[in-house]
Amino acid sequence: MALKPFSPTYYNPVRPITRKGKFLVGLVRLLFKIRKTLGGKDWLHPMKGHHEDPRKMTFAQQLYFGYKYYFRAILKGDEGAGLGPYFQSQGAKFQHKDTSHSTQKITLSAGGDLMPYFCITSEQCQDLWEESGDFFFDADLVVGNLETPLNPKKPASLVPEVMLSNMYFNANQDMFNVFSGLGKYKGFDVLSTANNHSLDQGEDGVVQTIEFLDQKGIQHVGTARSENERDAFPIVEKNGIKIAFLSYTFSLNALVCPEGKAYLANHLNLNEVNPDLSLIVHQAQLARQKGAEFLVAFLHMGCAYQPYPSKVIVDNMHQICAQTGIDLVLGGHPHNAQPIEFLDIKDPFSGRSKQSTIIYSQGDFVAYDIHKWCKLPLLLKFDIARYNGEVVISAIRAKLFYNHATIQSGKVTSLKLRDYLALKEDVSALKNDAAALREFEDLSYFAEEFLLKGNLEHFLVKEECDGKGNEQDANQPIHEL
Question: Which pTM was predicted?
Answer without folding.
Answer: 0.93
